[in-house]
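Appendix B, record 7
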Amino acid sequence: MNRTTRDRDEEGRARNARPRDGLGRPLPHGAEGVARQPEGVVRTPDETVREAQRLLDAGMPFHAHEVFEDAWKSGPEAERDLWQGLAQLAVGLTHAARGNREGGARLLRRGADRLTSAQEGPGHEGPGHEGPGHEGPGHESAYGIDVGGIVAWARELADRIEAIGAEVDAAAEAPRLRRTGA
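Structure tokens (predicted):
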């Protein structure tokens, strides 16, 4: 039997060393790919948002997802839903750009739901209790992130990709993470 050995990192964990395209798809060995995002980078929330927006604008939502993943793994528990929701939206856009409309729509909606949960925050008891003007993590103005606008974008894109049933242009569909002027 012909067995190939798996690519491994310094700790011995399986890692696929094949190059990847801008949407994170593996390319043949020896092909020129897009540089991967380093794992485990601890960034400030502002750096996270700026780097993720740069990657989204470049049509690389898979890589933006990795930036958001670093944020939820290294950040405070109270911010987990915010960063996980953004990561799910980036993966949803990745799937939609790869032509997986069902998976893309499902992840866009799941991310939108998680962001809505983050916006309400723990202990949210409805209108009048730390609503969208609250400046803390997980709320409408957290780090200038336009949570309400991103949720609306995700749900609209999910509906549209299910209706058209075709790949989307990741760069053209990239959301704006911050409100204008933020």
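Remarks on this record: Residues 101-120 form the longest helix (20 residues). Residues 7 and 50 are 31 Å apart (CA to CA).
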